[in-house]
Amino acid sequence: MDSVIPLPDGGKIVKTNCFECHAKCGVLCEVDKDGELVSVKGNPEDPRSEGRMCGKGLSATRILYDPDRLRWPLRRVGERGEGKWERITWDEALDWLQERVEALTEEYGAETIAYGQGTGRGTNQWTGRAGNAGGRVHHSLSPGNICLVPMMVQAFLQYGMFPTFDGCDFDNADCIVFWGANSVWTEPTYTSGQVGRSRDRGAKLIVIDPFFEHPLAAKADHFVGLRPGSDPYLAMAWLNVIMNEDLYDHEFTQKFTNAPMLLIEGANVPLNGALVEEGGNPQSMLVFDKASGQFVDIHTPGIDEDMNYHGLVQLADGSQAPVTTVWSALKQRVDEWTPEHASEMCWVPAEVIRQSARTYATAPAATINVFQGIEEQTNCKDTLQLVNILIAICGNLEKKGGNLSMPFWNQMGPLTGAEPETQKELRIVNDKASGSVYGISNPTAVFEAMRTGKPYPVRGYIMVQGNPLSWSENTALVKESLLCLDLLVCMDYYMSPTCELADLVLPSTHWTERDYLADEVCSEWVFGQQKAVEPLYERKSDVWFWREFGHRLNPEWWPWETDEELFDWQLEQTHAGVTWEELKGKWIHHVPQMPSRDYREHGFPTPSGRAELYAVVELIMGADPLPAANEPKESVFSTPEIAAEYPLTGITGRRYPIYYHSAYRGIPHLREIVPEPQVIFHRSIAEKLGIDYAEWVWIESPTGRITMKARPTDGLDPRVCVIPHGWWQGCAKLGLPGYPDGMSNANTLTSDRVYNDEFLTPGLRSTLCRIVKKKGGE
Ligand SMILES: Nc1nc2c(c(=O)[nH]1)N[C@H]1C(S)=C(S)[C@@H](COP(=O)(O)OP(=O)(O)OC[C@H]3O[C@@H](n4cnc5c(=O)[nH]c(N)nc54)[C@H](O)[C@@H]3O)O[C@H]1N2
Ligand SMILES: Nc1nc2c(c(=O)[nH]1)N[C@H]1C(S)=C(S)[C@@H](COP(=O)(O)OP(=O)(O)OC[C@H]3O[C@@H](n4cnc5c(=O)[nH]c(N)nc54)[C@H](O)[C@@H]3O)O[C@H]1N2
Ligand code: SF4
Ligand SMILES: [Mo]
């Protein structure tokens, strides 16, 4: 086998992939003759990571052999959360679980059990399948409304494909924009190499981020240090400069976007065939063709579309309607946001806005990377839509060095299967926002159903690799919800705070101990991620658990007897063109690209066949099809009464390069790098309140109060602070304590009062709060 290289001393090198983050870098695991993992190195054969690794991945031996890891299934014997457990076998665990699930289903219906996970760790498809299987409701009690879904869905609604995230062509770009994204830390191994190379050949760099400690901020040509959550104003002002200074790509905008599409002015709806002609086609969207002087369908080839048409149109019902174009309607919204006006709202000097917009728009090819800084906001739909528009009108969509479509995510459907139509009405929606675009149950609302039994009782929650007491907003409320359950099952590496509340805690194998397919949907590259060592103790993989559990309850959905059979089916469904056995043998396989991807040639898979600035599907879903400069729903501007008490805008959850969310604070050599939770705020606040560096302080919000160590800085606006998330675990070897009951958990502070209207995202990155000096004895 190419993927296992024997060593002269009886040991071996195993080619596999690190699974400590989404990057899944290719690695070489050295295993000695006794089967023990000795070391892990990057594998230069991986075309993405090119042999690089980060500190988390390089800690594999420590994580694998960490004595604090879970070893065998544990069942609760005391009160919930009391910490009393009995060790049981896997057979006992699965028998007991099956019986509990069947009993609860009998009593309350299949929809009473929610399935979930945390961020993607290779099993999104199986967690989704568990939720959908056998007539259940896809509650998907996972942080999808917070992470990736808004970005992905907004792109699909506008373009029928997904051009940000891994779609950034850093290597060929003349200008790189990190907009609320710190990928050199969060997907370090690809991005650092690519960005470094591009910088060496002179690519410009723009960092749009409130925090000057972003690792690229000081290297950037433009650092745009904006107020958290004010991104729509900045994006509007960029568009203002680009549209008014005529810096956009005329040909692409006219021919490949729906900028020329006609709208009934005021009503903001497309002028369709049925409106202008009796018996006309309501699906047909019209444009004005300058060549023929006619209104024609937007799909008509060879036309000369008028992007600025304005006039009165005779409708089929005899009335007349004022008509404008998408371009003009967008421009009307954009015109209000001159750099000077936007500057008042986003706190960025107008000249910085102007110069950075020009740099982006005039680069021959430019790529924008967006992520959590934008997503975790109640106005995320607006910013994401505006950024997508910028990419398109500057001609950077599907262009070398710009933003390219990722072919993969639309292959998820066959793997998860779909919930039956009849179950869709059982999805649980959040009544604090319309959630017009978010298709599945909303996590916050499902937690509420656990507490209240409304709209119906949710009595069970089965999850792998997730820690909702760390990921969800308002930790205290989540804890209260979980305490109401009849069944809580948690599969993890460690006894996390969520595990502590469970009935059944299941031990998961580390990536060095398990066979997996990387990645989930077999995108461009697929890897046979094979185990380097035999699983220790009684650990099993998450894939094994979902398959075994599924097979017991719903064999028609889970017919596979072994993981290998499941992998083969997965490879077949995703057209990878390889079997598991072959893949394991060669480790890496290149998946043929889908031929339909040349959108510039064949048009975009959207209702208008074009990249949609005006998202037609959003109109149908009840959302605003155009972006607006919406303020976060709780902020210094929108809720001044709250801001009077809590004047700081807190960014919760900015990442550390060495930790993965709440994991790995127990690994001594990682913990030494950042030993304690630090809240970062401006030096002037420390001076005013008499707070010293590293002094423990309170951070208070309308939702709760936590404690962290003070780290004053000059790298932030005095009205902003940074509050990292994920702190619960102690590190006995270094004599460092844990932080129980959410006492240093950023989500103890975050609001469950306001949500984004389209994706139901909470405003984690603009949490109103204040720093308070501790009194003696506190
Ligand atoms: N305030 C605030 N909240 C946030 C965020 C933020 O920025 N700010 N970020 C949000 C985002 S983007 C996300 S994705 C979520 C993340 O939320 P989660 O993914 O739930 O993150 P963790 O809290 O680290 O919990 C994951 C658990 O899985 C365990 N684990 C790790 N690998 C494996 C594995 O392979 N198998 C099993 N069974 N267990 C494993 C870890 O030990 C850990 O206890 O948090 C969200 N919450
Ligand atoms: N080491 C490590 N890597 C990770 C993770 C981890 O926990 N640790 N988590 C993984 C997961 S699940 C995710 S989703 C990704 C997230 O990856 P990223 O989004 O790249 O990383 P973050 O640090 O969460 O946030 C990016 C930046 O957003 C900025 N920001 C905050 N608020 C705003 C705002 O309002 N506007 C703008 N423009 N910027 C703002 C922050 O200062 C930060 O620099 O990382 C993944 N990779
Ligand atoms: S970036 Fe680090 S943690 Fe992520 S896969 Fe690569 S080595 Fe592992
Ligand atoms: Mo995430």
From TrEMBL:
PROSITE patterns: 4FE4S_MOW_BIS_MGD. Keywords: Iron, Iron-sulfur, Metal-binding. One of its GO terms (molecular function) is oxidoreductase activity. Residues 11-68 form the 4Fe-4S Mo/W bis-MGD-type domain. The keyword Transcription regulation does not apply. The keyword Metal-binding applies. Belongs to the prokaryotic molybdopterin-containing oxidoreductase family. PANTHER family: OXIDOREDUCTASE YYAE-RELATED, TRIMETHYLAMINE-N-OXIDE REDUCTASE. This is Molybdopterin-dependent oxidoreductase. It comes from Adlercreutzia mucosicola. The lineage of its organism: Bacteria, Bacillati, Actinomycetota, Coriobacteriia, Eggerthellales.
